Amino acid sequence: MYIHIPFCKQACHYCDFHFSTSVKKKPEMVEAICKELLLRKEEVSGNVETIYFGGGTPSLLSAEELQQIFDVIHSNYSVVENAEITLEANPDDLSEEKLKMLAASTINRLSIGVQSFFEEDLKLMNRAHNAEEALESIKLAKQYFGNISIDLIYGIPGMSNRRWKENLQIALDLEVPHISSYALTVEPKTALKSMIEKGKVAPVEEELAKEQYEIMIETLSAANFDNYEFSNFGKPGFFSRNNTAYWFGKPYLGIGPSAHSFDGFHRKWNISNNTLYIKSLQKGEIPAEIEKLSISDRYNELVMTRLRTKWGIAVDEVERSFGKKYKDYLLREATGLIEDKLLEWHNNRLQVSKKGKFLSDGIASELFWVEN
Ligand code: SF4
């Protein structure tokens, strides 16, 4: 289960997620989220194994608002006893009082949006926290949570490889068991894009991002982190169960504005507008669009997501799920990539090689089924 909390204190320059910087409608939003949870309970026939509060900034929720949502979940859904319950939090929200409140709830995993431990990077990205808050929030969070992930961004203009290594070293010294790390991307209609166009910020260089990705693989592997998905590194026992389920194509229910859902055959997405979302739910309507995925859409999604994981693509599963035609196609398209040493075979699974790692998405697209 994914719950989108669409509010942030300020807009990060690179961000194109759905959020509002006005929190005026937070109480109505929580009501609407609870209503959507109620209206959609029949869509979930099995147990809920993970709950993920993403955003936006879910750490802006008060204790009462969180409790309101949990009350609806627990009285309408069957949540397994050892469910992984993650909340994304920003460092500036993690006061001791807030952490005590979160630890007293059923949340058992924090994903902290650090992005960088350096002031220059945080300012360039317009993050709401400073370098000291980044550091202190983790030290404090560790007193209340054992299962902590932090987000770091690489490829930031002006961030040298040396500073990137320092960022990684600080994360290692803090002994967090999980790190998610993404290359800074320049999305359309973001402040970052316009700043680059106006020459106020240097362009993002793919070569630098690649170098920093390689530095990260080397540094984190040496520190016993498993790079179990392209952007995710975990110590044994600390892989994200929520994200792993997503990569393995398990169904999920997405609640809140802009949230996506998947039932194995259809993708649904809620409207990305807070006011319209609230108004619809007040009328008892879910403002969503739905698309039925074709067999080739589902094959392409499997290729895309699995190839980014360390488990790769199980060829037997492709045959079981999509038939011999798709398996034969996959094997045929993979031949050249294997010869180029971008893909490798391991126990009947196709995996990207070390050489192919940074090119995972491009490699996946070579294996896609394209309808004529
Ligand atoms: S806090 Fe997260 S969701 Fe909000 S603007 Fe920044 S990156 Fe985007």
Question: What key attributes describe this structure?
Answer:
single chain; about 375 residues; alpha/beta; 9-stranded mixed beta sheet; 3-stranded antiparallel beta sheet; 14 helices; 15 strands; about 40% helix; about 20% strand; globular; binds iron/sulfur cluster
Structure description:
The protein is α/β, with parallel strands linked by helices. Helix content is 41%, strand content 20%. A 9-stranded mixed beta sheet has the order 7-8-6-5-4-3-2-1-9. The protein starts with a strand and ends in a 5-residue tail after the last helix. The model has no long low-confidence stretch (mean pLDDT 97). The structure holds iron/sulfur cluster. Iron/sulfur cluster binds next to loops.
List the helices and strands and how they pair.
Elements (H helix, E strand, L loop, with lengths): L1 E4 L20 H14 L8 E8 L7 H14 L2 E11 L6 H9 L4 E7 L3 H7 L5 H11 L6 E7 L6 H13 L4 E6 L7 H7 L8 H17 L3 E4 L2 E3 L6 H7 L6 E2 L4 E3 L3 E5 L3 H9 L5 E5 L2 H13 L5 E2 H8 L1 H16 L3 E4 L2 E4 L7 H8 L5
Task: Report the oligomer.
Answer: single chain
Q: List the total number of helices.
A: 14
Strand tally: 15
Strand order of the largest sheet: 7-8-6-5-4-3-2-1-9
pLDDT under 50 segments (min length 5)? Answer: none
